[in-house]
Amino acid sequence: MRIGLPKEIKDQEFRAGLTPASVQTLCQQGHQVVVERGAGAGSGFTDQEYVEAGATLVSDPTIIWAQSMVVKVKEPQPSEYRFFRKDLILFTYLHLAAERALTEALLQSGLHAIAYETVATADGRLPLLTPMSIIAGRLSVQFGARYLERQQGGRGVLLGGVPGVQPGRVVILGGGVVGTEAARIAVGMGARVQIIDINVDRLAYLETLFGSRVELLYSTSSQIVAAVPQADLLIGAVLVPGRKAPILVNRDLVAQMRPGSVIIDVAVDQGGCIETLRPTSYSQPTYVEAGVVHFGVPNMPGATPWTATQALNNATLPYVLKLAEKGLDALLTDSALGQGLNVANGELVHPAIRSAFPDLTGRSTSDFALV
Question: 130-298: which CATH architecture?
Answer without folding.
Answer: 3-Layer(aba) Sandwich (3.40)
